[in-house]
Amino acid sequence: MTVEARPEFFRKAIEASSKRDYDFYQNALADDVVWTLAEGELHGKEAFLDYMKKQTMEMNGGMKLTIDSLLASGSEAVIKGVMTFKSTAGKDKKYLYCDVCQLNDQEEKIQHMTSFFIEVKE
């Protein structure tokens, strides 16, 4: 039986990302999660969390994520929105993002995520 993607789960995930709530992700990720980014693929929960922590440092302590749209069908979801943060140099940064998520077939845990980012120049 396939787990259905619930929009509320992904709204909580985006909120947890903004707050850097690593405990949420500790419970929301499959142990063998794969995260595909422009830099390549990260394999496993620890690699995923380590990358999030590294981003926090590069984003001067955190970021704000907003959701423009969230589409969920079957075990997949697509989340599109805006990410803002201050760089380590103190400059305001703004990116458009899109996350494509696939849940684990057995439980409501993220099995695979692909993330796209486009910098908005102002």
Distance between the termini: 47 Å
Determine the strand fraction and express it as a percent band.
Answer: over 45%
Residue ranges: pLDDT <50 for 5 or more in a row? none
Q: What's the mean pLDDT score?
A: 90
What structural class do the secondary elements suggest?
Answer: alpha+beta
Query: Cα-atom Rg, whole angstroms?
Result: 14 Å
The percent of residues in helical segments reads 25-40%
Q: With helices defined by DSSP (H or I, 4 residues minimum), what is the helix count?
A: 3
Shape: globular
| Neighbour order of strands in the largest sheet | 2-1-6-5-4-3
Order of helices and strands: HHEEHEEEE
Please give the largest β-sheet.
Answer: 6 strands, mixed
Count of beta strands: 6
Architecture blueprint of SSEs:
Blueprint: H1 7-19, H2 22-28, E1 29-37, E2 40-43, H3 45-58, E3 64-73, E4 76-86, E5 92-103, E6 110-119
Parallel strand pairs: 1-6
Antiparallel strand pairs: 1-2, 3-4, 4-5, 5-6
